User: Which sequence fits this backbone?
C-alpha cells in the first residue's frame, strides 16, 4: 500500500477542500452548519489517525502500572482488536476508581486521577478547538 | 414537518379545526427553522379574516432521526402551567398529540418577539445586570408549585433519593455505553463523596443555557425548550448554565458576577448562603449536566452501533470530550471547599 500521504494528511486535506472550495458553493444554512461540523470531525479524525494505536498502548500501560493489575494484550494491531483491548483496560480503570473511593485512600484516588487527567489531555489534543456550531 | 410542499395545507386544515374563530385561513409562508437541537422547528406566517398571525411548530423528528426521546404532551402541559404562573416563555397555543394532522406530534407556539441570547451577545448587546436578570429568570420558574406540574413528571421521594439517582446516572451512562468511560465513574464517586447541603426540590428546566434563552425588549430572559424539564435540585439549572458557558461564552456567573447573582437568587428563593454560593454552583456545574450528557453519550453509542444515522450524534460527542476535561479540572479544585462547606453545615445544624 502507499503509506504517504498519511491518513492524517489526507483527512486534513479533505477538510481544507471542504472549507475553502465546497463551503463557498453551499447555499442553505443547515448544510453550512453540517459542513462546519464535518470539518471539525475530520480534523479530529486526522489527529487521531496519526497517534491512535500509540495512545491506546500508552494509556493501557499507565493503567497497569498505577493499578497493579494485568490488562493483558491486544489480539492484534488491527483497530477492532485494539479498541476491544482499550475497552477492557478502561473497565479496569473504572473499577479501580470506584474501589479507591470506597477505600477512602486519598493517595490512591490522586494516582488514578492523574491517569484520568492524562487521558483527558489526549482527548483535548484530538478535539482541538471546540466550536458548538449549529446552536443558538 | 420537513415537507414544505405538503405542510402549508396541513397547517391550514389543523388551525381551521382547533381555532374556529379564524375563518378563511391562508398560509402565506412555511419555513423550516435552524437551531432546533432535538426537535423540528418551522415558522408559519398566515392570515385569516380576523388578521395576520405568525406561529412556530415544534414537533418530533422521525424516530431514526431523533437525538433524544422526550414527551411532547408533557412539554405542552408544562408550557401551559409555567405560562399561567407568569414565567416568560412563548405561549403554547395548540397541540397535535398524535401527528394525525401535522404529520408528527407537534406543539404550536406563539412566535417570540425577543432576541436569541447568543446572537444578542454576538451583536454586542449589553450584559450589564444580566446576571441579576438570570437569577430572576431561574427563580420565576422554580417557584412554580410542584403540585401544579404535569402528573407525568416523576416526583422524587426525597432530596437524598433524588441525588443518589442523579449521581448514579453517571455510572449508568458509562455502563450502557459502547465502551467504558472511567471519567464518568470518577465523577460519580466524587459527587457522592462531596454532597452539598440539601435544598427543596423544584421545577428544573433541564437544558437551561444561553442557546435556550432569549432577551426581551425590556431586558429580561425568556425561556425556551422545556422538553428536558423535571423536578430536581434548584441549583442544577444554575450549574448547567455555567457549564455550557464554559464552551459557549459569555459566562454570566464568572468570578466578577457570581456573588451578586447568588445574593439576588437567595433573596428571591429564600435559600441560604450554605445552599447557594459559588462552591455549590461549581458542584452542580458537574452534576447538572448529567441529563444532557447521558443523552449525548446514548446518541454517540447508537451511531457507533449503526442504530442511528444522525451526524449530530457524532458531533455532540465532542461536547462530552470537552466536558470531561472541564469536570476533572473543576472537581480537582472543589474538594477542599466542599469539605469546608460540609463542616460549616454540620456546625450550624
Assistant:
Amino acid at each position: 500500500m502507499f503509506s504517504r500521504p498519511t491518513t492524517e494528511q489526507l483527512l486534513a486535506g479533505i477538510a481544507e477542500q471542504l472549507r475553502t472550495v465546497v463551503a463557498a458553493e453551499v447555499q442553505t444554512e443547515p448544510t453550512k452548519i453540517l459542513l462546519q461540523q464535518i470539518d471539525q470531525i475530520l480534523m479530529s479524525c486526522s489527529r487521531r489517525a496519526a497517534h491512535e494505536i500509540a495512545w491506546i498502548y500508552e494509556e493501557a500501560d499507565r493503567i497497569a502500572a498505577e493499578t497493579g493489575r494485568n490488562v493483558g494484550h491486544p489480539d492484534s494491531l488491527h483497530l477492532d482488536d485494539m479498541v476491544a483491548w482499550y475497552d477492557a483496560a478502561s473497565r479496569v480503570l473504572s473499577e479501580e476508581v470506584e474501589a479507591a473511593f470506597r477505600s477512602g485512600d486519598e493517595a490512591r484516588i490522586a494516582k488514578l486521577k492523574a491517569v484520568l487527567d492524562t487521558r483527558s489531555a489526549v482527548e483535548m489534543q484530538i478535539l482541538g478547538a471546540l466550536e458548538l456550531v449549529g446552536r443558538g | 414537518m420537513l415537507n414544505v410542499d405538503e405542510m402549508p395545507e396541513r397547517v391550514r386544515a389543523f388551525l381551521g379545526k382547533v381555532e374556529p374563530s379564524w375563518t378563511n385561513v391562508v398560509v402565506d409562508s412555511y419555513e423550516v427553522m435552524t437551531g432546533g437541537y432535538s426537535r423540528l422547528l418551522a415558522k408559519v406566517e398566515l392570515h385569516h379574516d380576523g388578521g395576520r398571525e405568525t406561529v412556530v411548530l415544534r414537533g418530533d423528528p422521525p424516530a431514526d432521526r431523533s437525538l433524544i426521546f422526550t414527551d411532547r404532551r408533557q412539554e405542552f402541559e408544562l408550557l401551559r402551567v409555567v405560562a399561567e404562573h407568569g414565567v416568560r416563555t412563548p405561549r403554547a397555543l395548540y397541540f397535535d398529540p398524535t401527528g394525525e394532522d401535522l404529520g408528527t406530534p407537534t406543539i404550536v407556539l406563539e412566535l417570540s418577539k425577543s432576541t436569541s441570547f447568543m446572537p444578542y451577545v454576538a451583536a454586542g448587546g449589553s450584559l450589564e445586570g444580566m446576571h441579576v436578570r438570570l437569577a430572576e429568570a431561574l427563580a420565576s420558574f422554580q417557584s412554580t408549585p410542584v403540585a401544579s406540574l404535569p402528573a407525568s413528571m416523576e416526583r422524587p421521594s426525597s432530596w437524598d433519593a433524588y441525588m443518589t439517582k442523579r449521581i448514579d446516572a453517571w455510572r449508568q451512562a458509562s455502563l450502557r455505553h459502547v465502551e467504558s468511560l472511567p471519567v464518568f465513574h470518577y465523577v460519580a464517586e466524587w459527587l457522592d463523596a462531596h454532597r452539598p447541603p440539601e435544598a427543596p426540590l423544584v421545577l428544573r428546566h433541564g437544558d437551561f443555557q444561553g442557546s435556550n434563552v432569549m432577551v426581551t425588549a425590556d431586558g429580561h430572559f425568556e425561556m425556551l425548550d422545556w422538553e428536558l424539564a423535571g423536578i430536581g435540585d434548584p441549583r442544577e439549572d444554575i450549574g448547567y448554565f455555567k457549564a455550557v458557558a464554559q464552551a459557549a461564552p459569555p459566562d454570566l456567573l464568572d468570578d466578577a458576577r457570581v456573588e451578586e447573582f447568588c445574593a439576588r437568587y437567595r433573596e428571591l428563593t429564600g435559600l441560604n448562603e450554605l445552599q447557594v454560593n459559588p462552591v455549590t454552583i461549581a458542584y452542580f456545574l458537574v452534576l447538572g449536566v448529567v441529563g444532557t450528557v447521558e443523552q449525548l453519550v446514548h446518541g454517540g453509542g447508537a451511531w457507533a452501533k449503526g442504530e442511528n444515522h444522525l451526524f449530530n450524534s457524532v458531533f455532540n460527542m465532542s461536547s462530552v470530550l470537552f466536558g470531561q476535561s472541564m469536570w476533572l479540572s473543576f472537581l480537582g479544585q472543589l474538594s477542599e471547599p466542599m469539605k469546608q462547606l460540609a463542616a460549616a453545615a454540620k456546625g450550624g445544624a
